[in-house]
Design goal:
It contains seven helices and ten strands. Strands 3-2-1-10-5-6-7-9 form an eight-stranded mixed sheet, sandwiched between helices. It has a two-stranded parallel sheet with strand order 4-8. A hairpin with a 4-residue loop joins strand 1 and strand 2. The longest helix has 13 residues. The N terminus is likely disordered.
């Protein structure tokens, strides 16, 4: 069982982390990962369930959400990251796709900001093979998903020179300021509504409010890699390949 748990932990690290990071995560292998054990389909049926902060036993390591509300799975995931040190002394973010919200934490597990997000049009947790090399006009509505998993993220620029946070380099998925160049999509308005039901519109990228990107994402991830956890909505997460993107190309949607 110990060997199996260790394999799960190391496989979740995915490509791009390197042996140095994997070695540091060895001690976390015995801790249950909420992203692997969640009943995702069941959670997806109740997207509005949010829980306030609850106290843990004295001495337990946990994330600090302050007064921010979050779903049970998001809280469990954040506490697991902090207690297992899976973030490897890097800032981290958790994307709750069901509730269309992102939470950004410092290396110490203190919440630095939270905001609504726009996500891929289609429900689903897997990227279509080769989608990172496809023209946007060739991507069908059913293929417009935001993949779930654990990703090593780094700041970069898209083909227009705009700063973005690369999340899943292989599949050209990034987190970036909300796109407003297509008025009929009403992306900024979608972010402002209280319901997450109208937050599915992108080709897979994670759109955040402009000020949130400038003040929180840029501030936390500039000059350092970070970890982005995208919680699944339809399945248990599988290991995902990710890596550093430092070219001047890429889709922004």
């Amino acid at each position: 069982m110990t060997r199996m748990a260790l394999c799960l932990c190391l496989s979740l690290l995915g490509a791009g982390c390197g042996s140095r990071l994997a070695t540091k995560a060895d001690n976390a292998a015995h801790l249950p990962n909420p992203m692997l054990n969640a009943n995702d389909a069941e959670d997806a049926d109740v997207p509005f369930v949010m829980e306030q902060k609850t106290d843990m036993a004295e001495g337990a390591r946990q994330a600090n959400f302050a007064s921010e509300s979050a779903s049970r799975r998001t809280r469990e995931m954040a506490d697991w990251v902090v207690s297992s040190r899976d973030n490897l002394n890097m800032p981290f973010a958790i994307v709750d796709k069901v509730n269309a919200k992102v939470y950004v934490f410092g290396v110490d597990g203190q919440l630095r900001g939270a905001a609504p997000v726009l996500l891929g049009l289609a429900q689903g947790d897997d990227a279509t093979p080769g989608i990172g090399d496809m023209r946007m006009s060739r991507i069908s509505p059913a293929e417009r998903t935001t993949p779930a998993g654990r990703f090593v993220a780094t700041m970069g620029r898209n083909s227009h020179g705009k700063e973005i946070l690369w999340v899943d380099y292989k599949n050209a998925i990034s987190m970036h300021p909300v796109i407003t160049s297509r008025p009929k999509e009403r992306r900024a308005e979608r972010l402002d509504t209280p319901s997450p039901l109208d937050n599915r519109i992108s080709y897979g990228c994670i759109n955040v409010p402009v000020k949130f990107f400038e003040n929180v994402i840029h501030g936390m991830f500039s000059g350092t890699d970070g970890i982005v956890y995208v919680l699944p909505e339809t399945r248990r997460v599988r290991p995902s390949s990710s890596g550093r993107r430092d070219s001047q190309t890429g889709i922004q949607d």
